[in-house]
């Protein structure tokens, strides 16, 4: 771990920390995700290494695998590539100095759609990845890539939910396996779609407990409206509280691609 210098912390929660760092030998910026094992550190390290290798996926355009890992008896590090221009989709959308035309928003939405479709075909990733703007990176070519370096590991707590806006009502109510993950991811995609075009997040002014209660218990679902009528319709279909009434990704992707083509023709 002495080969990497931690520069400053960009995010932390009760499970882990995200650091901007520098790879000393190459003088290259990287992102370090620090995970702190809570129990049986020797066993957890073995699980960590095994599960890390399932994330090492290359040659998929909309997927970004982690760049490496390091571990000690106290910490587990996942090394992730650094984007000079944008970073996470969450931070990119909130950078008011960047103008994001509709064409770019559509292209990012298509990238996310295609990435999640790949996740849905991979049983090793299906239950480990939930689409949120925090675990999607925007590279210097303004392409969105699902950041597998942010996938949770099996030894991390399943009872501590961060950013509950992205979790469907059924995902907040039942344990994994007790609901349809494919339909649940459509809710997550609907929230990401809203962020892409509104550049804000529903319930952003509420704490996590209040947000989770509103969605799972009170059934106070976000009432969202976008200026683009077609995107607004797709988003609200994805946010249908009845899982079986949500569309599937293979139905949405061609519509988004067609919208982008029509926009380019203007």
UniProtKB/TrEMBL annotation:
Keywords: Integrin, Kinase, Transferase. Gene3D superfamilies: Transferase(Phosphotransferase) domain 1. The keyword Kinase applies. GO terms for biological process: integrin-mediated signaling pathway. GO terms for cellular component: cytoplasm. Pfam families: PK_Tyr_Ser-Thr. Residues 4-256 form the Protein kinase domain. One of its GO terms (molecular function) is protein kinase activity. This is Integrin-linked protein kinase (Trinotate prediction).
């Amino acid at each position: 771990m002495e080969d990497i210098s931690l520069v400053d912390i960009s995010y932390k929660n009760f499970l882990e920390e995200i650091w901007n760092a520098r790879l000393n030998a190459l003088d290259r910026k990287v992102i370090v995700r620090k995970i702190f094992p809570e129990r049986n550190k020797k066993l957890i390290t073995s699980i960590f290494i095994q599960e890390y290798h399932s994330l090492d996926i290359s040659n998929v355009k909309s997927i970004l695998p982690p760049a490496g890992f390091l571990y000690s008896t106290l910490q587990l590090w996942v090394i992730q590539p650094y984007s000079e221009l944008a970073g996470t989709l969450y931070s990119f959308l909130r950078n008011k100095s960047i103008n994001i035309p509709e064409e770019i928003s559509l292209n990012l939405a298509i990238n996310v759609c295609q990435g999640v479709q790949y996740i849905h075909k991979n049983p090793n990733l299906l239950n480990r990845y939930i689409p949120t703007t925090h675990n999607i990176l925007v590279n210097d070519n303004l392409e969105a890539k699902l950041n597998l370096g942010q996938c949770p590991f099996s030894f991390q707590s399943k009872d501590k939910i961060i950013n509950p806006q992205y979790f469907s009502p059924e995902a907040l109510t039942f344990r994994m396996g007790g609901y349809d993950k494919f339909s649940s991811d459509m809710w997550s995609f609907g929230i990401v779609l809203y962020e892409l075009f509104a550049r804000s997040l529903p319930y952003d002014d509420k704490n996590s407990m209040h947000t989770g209660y509103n969605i799972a218990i009170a059934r106070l679902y976000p009432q969202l409206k976008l200026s683009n009528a077609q995107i607004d319709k797709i988003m609200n279909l994805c946010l249908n509280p009845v899982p079986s009434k949500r569309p599937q990704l293979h139905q949405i992707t061609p519509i988004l691609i067609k919208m982008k083509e029509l926009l380019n023709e203007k």
